[in-house]
Amino acid sequence: MTKTFTALVLSLPSKDKTVRMRIWRALHGIGCGVLRDGVYVLPAGAAQVSDFVDLESGVKAAGGFAMTVELNLKTSAQFDRVRKLFDRTGAYASLIARVNAAQKSLTRLGQPRADTLVKRLRRSFQEIVETDFYPGQANRQAQDALAGLESAVQRLVSLDEPRKAKGRIRRLDPVKHQGRVWATRKNPWVDRLASAWLIRRFIDRKARFRWIDNPKGRPRGALGFDFDGAHFTHVGNRVTFEVLLASFGLDGDPALNQLAAIVHFLDIGGIPVDDAKGLETILRGARDKARSDNDLVVAAARIFDHVYSAYRGTERAA
Questions:
Q1: 3-state secondary structure of 132
Q2: 41 pLDDT more than 70
Q3: Fewest CB within 10 angstroms: 88, 93, 147, 194, which?
Q4: HSE of 243, CA atoms in CB hemisphere, 13 A
Q5: Pairing of strands 181-185, 223-224
């Protein structure tokens, strides 16, 4: 890790409080560490170092003194001291507190206002990240908190999510489930999209899907999934995708299990998964463009194909 920093050494006119405040805000905004009064530092490779040029010119134009210098630290103790100037733990802690407060108010806010709040919190997170030159555990904790909040907001849209069913998952023969009609709720999201992909890719290649308003609308003879009373739904702590894996003996595939961990987290929360946020973002884009539920299932299938292929490739490389 480099021990080189860039320092802006300056002295401002004492009489012009407006200039002093403007320069101070600019230095704070780009994330400078204050080594001592009049000495402001940034890691040498930081993009914000380029702002020192304008700041130096501004100080000189106001009749002050400014000079940009390179600061080469000789010892680890010196580096540790300067690095602490960029500790963003407090900023992340404040953000996490706001996220936790938002979690408690989601039901009262409702989905549209909750979406707006999440965007605001995500923007605040990005503002911290822009000047977090040494991200660590606090950064990851904030990411996890935001991911949990975003999943909770998504569940507001799906208040009709199935309740956990009890009982054992029976092993079934895919041969006896070919060319069937598979019914699930309209406006499919992660669990239903992934389940539809799994059904058509691994269980019933000629599957036809029907989108229903409620369980009573299930066509006669159709296999239901992901609603209360369906043939395949949440069982215990398993979401529908995981139940389908176990039902048809697909849970021995490591790549499918990796995908199942993402689906589980995005559907009901739990242990965060590194790829979950990225997959959710891509699926949200597909949903925004889709003209119908069938269009969305087709688009989502291509996405899941790519993710599955990537996990298979990682498995083979190992």
A1: coil
A2: yes
A3: 93
A4: 27
A5: parallel
